[in-house]
Amino acid sequence: GIEALKASGLPKGRVSVVLSNHFVRYALVPWSAALSGAAEETAYVRHYFVRVYGDRAKAWSFRASPAPSGMPRLCSAVDTILLEELKRTCSRSKAKLVSVQPELMSTFNRWRGKVPATGAWLVMADAERACIGLHAKGNWQAVNNARGEWLPLLERERHRIGGALPDVVLLHSDQALRVDAAGWKVQQLAA
After folding, report:
1. How many beta carbons lie within 10 A of that of residue 21, not counting itself?
2. How far apart are CA 28 and CA 89, in angstroms?
3. DSSP strand pairing (120-125 vs 129-136)
């Protein structure tokens, strides 16, 4: 983590960081017509995260993805102390921190061209956890970032949401994973 970054002796220059899903919390925050301005939106997102994750969310920093009017927004939260330490580490080495992006967004942006018009599940899996997002109808429909194997977590999400859902799975992992998943059309993405 941060210690490895400090030890790397960052050269002077621009630094972009992609945070592992392990360090990020996600939520689909419902749209609200009552919000006017960035301050109200930030307060609304913070309140939503506190309801979902408890008081610990009060110490987090938040970002929201754009979404069409009336649609929920995919929001992410990161511990503010982690962000401050990243900034301090870069500052000490004369590097300029220009971007901090959650792994889910970085991966989606890289592979969004693979998402068919009918939608797809984006699964980022490692040995101990998986981040699963459903992107369909031009927007995020679901997101779950949890401990466990990707396939049982994916099945649980499908049953939780219900209805007619895409069967395409875009699987991203730097590990060798089982991809024979009955009822799913799994496409492995390069790590």
Report:
1. 22
2. 31
3. antiparallel
**Look-up: residue for tokens 């396939």?**
151
| Cα-based distances in Å from 6 to 11, 84, 92, 108, 160 | 11, 14, 9, 28, 42
- Residue 159's contacts (CB-CB under 8 Å, 6 or more residues apart) are none
Choose among 129, 142, 134, 137: nearest CA to 170.
Answer: 134
Calpha distance 95→19 (Å, rounded):
18
Residues 6 or more apart whose CB falls under 8 angstroms from that of 44 comprise 29, 32, 35
For every residue of 91-157, DSSP letters joined together read HHTTEEEEEEEEHHHHHHHHHGGGS-TT-EEEEEE-SSEEEEEEEETTEEEEEEEEES-HHHHHHHH
Report the C-alpha gap between 154 and 94 in whole angstroms.
42
From first to last of its 191 residues, the chain has per-residue pLDDT tens of 566 555 566 667 888 899 999 999 999 999 998 988 889 999 999 999 999 999 999 999 999 998 888 899 999 999 999 999 999 888 887 788 899 999 999 999 999 999 999 999 999 998 889 999 999 988 999 999 999 999 999 999 999 998 899 999 999 998 777 777 888 999 999 86
CB 65 within 8 A of CB 105: yes
> What tokens appear for 140 in the block?
């995020």
Beta bridge partners of 25: 77
